[in-house]
Write a structure and sequence with these properties.
Belongs to the diaminopimelate epimerase family. It is found in: Cytoplasm. It is an enzyme of class 5 (isomerase). Helices cover about 15% and strands about 40% of the residues. It contains 4 helices and 19 strands. It is globular and about 50 Å long. The model has no long low-confidence stretch (mean pLDDT about 95). Bound molecules: 2,6-diaminopimelic acid. The site of 2,6-diaminopimelic acid (API) has 21 residues, from strand 4, helix 2 and helix 4.
Length: about 280
């Protein structure tokens, strides 16, 4: 089948975007994997499928499939690219677009400077809802919230955990450039304490308003940036007393601005969204 696609990136996290607003589009996990393959396909961290509104109070639906072919609940960098895509394709004139995802409705807003701000909803910290199996672990309280001592690769690491609709585990490190991303990332991503696997963030606190972050993503490996990962790392850093409500996150692919005013508030993420090229592929 011939498939038209748009290649996009948000802070270096890259996507194949498919327009399923005019006709339904269901590919097999193998076809998604092929699309995402950097040699046999187009190449991407995730595939984004833009669909029609499933309800009158939203404008579109948006599905996310990781490079490994697995469908997931949320994607922050993808939400910004989604908003730019629907505007550029003439699918919407709105600057604030309501879109439903598997983890609820989010609302990207296009800014005059070309960046996009997204209300990513409220974070979730209860282990069972992440999901994270905390059985037998005593949370090590620090500040007013906890890190969990998780055994991995023969050591115990203090993990902070949260959900932004998708699961995240965050480990504080002194220097992200020397962090054990490829040693601990894969082992934590598929650790038994995360029944649906997990995105693994390595967080370096530069100041109370500036951090550096690398993320080994569930179903994709290390990416140049992870939007939900930046949200999770900042809210966990705030809860642990390390960070103020407005933080600049330096990732390997670019900068994201994250704001969270605390419990009961949504997380606001601002960052770039860029169209790289359009194409067609026989899949
Ligand atoms: N790998 C993630 C999905 C993509 C999230 C990331 N690319 C972002 O920008 O939030 C997961 O399995 O939950």
């Amino acid at each position: 089948m011939k498939l038209r696609f748009t290649k996009m990136q948000g802070a270096g996290n890259d996507f194949v975007v498919l327009d399923a607003t005019r006709q339904p589009l269901t590919l097999t996990p193998e076809q998604y994997r092929r699309l995402a393959d950097r040699r046999f396909g187009v190449g991407a961290d995730q595939i984004l499928i833009v669909g029609p509104a499933p309800a009158p109070d939203v404008d579109f639906s948006y599905r996310i499939v990781n490079a490994d072919g697995g469908e997931v609940e949320q994607c922050g960098n993808g939400a910004r690219c989604f908003a730019k895509f629907v505007r550029d394709q003439g699918l919407s004139e709105k600057s604030a677009i309501r879109v439903s995802t598997h983890s609820g409705v989010i609302e990207p807003r296009l800014q005059p400077d070309g960046r996009v701000t997204v209300n990513m909803g409220a974070p979730v910290f209860e282990p069972a809802r992440i999901p994270f199996d905390a059985a037998g672990l005593a949370a090590q309280p620090q500040g007013d919230h906890a890190q969990w001592p998780v055994e991995v690769a023969g050591q115990t690491v203090p993990l902070a955990v949260a959900s932004m609709g998708n699961p995240h585990a965050v480990l504080r490190v002194d220097d992200v450039d020397r962090a054990p991303v490829h040693e601990l990332g894969p082992k934590l991503e598929s650790h038994t304490r995360f029944p649906r696997r997990v995105n693994v963030g390595f967080l370096q606190v530069v100041s109370r308003s500036q951090v550096r972050l690398r993320v080994y993503e569930r179903g994709a490996g290390e990416t140049l940036a992870c939007g939900t990962g930046a949200c999770a790392a900042v809210v966990l850093g705030i809860r642990l007393g390390w960070l103020d409500p407005w933080v600049e996150v330096e990732t390997r692919g670019g900068r994201l601005g994250i704001e969270w005013q605390g419990a009961g508030h949504p997380v606001w993420m601002t960052g770039p969204a860029v169209t790289v090229f359009e194409g067609e592929i026989e899949i």
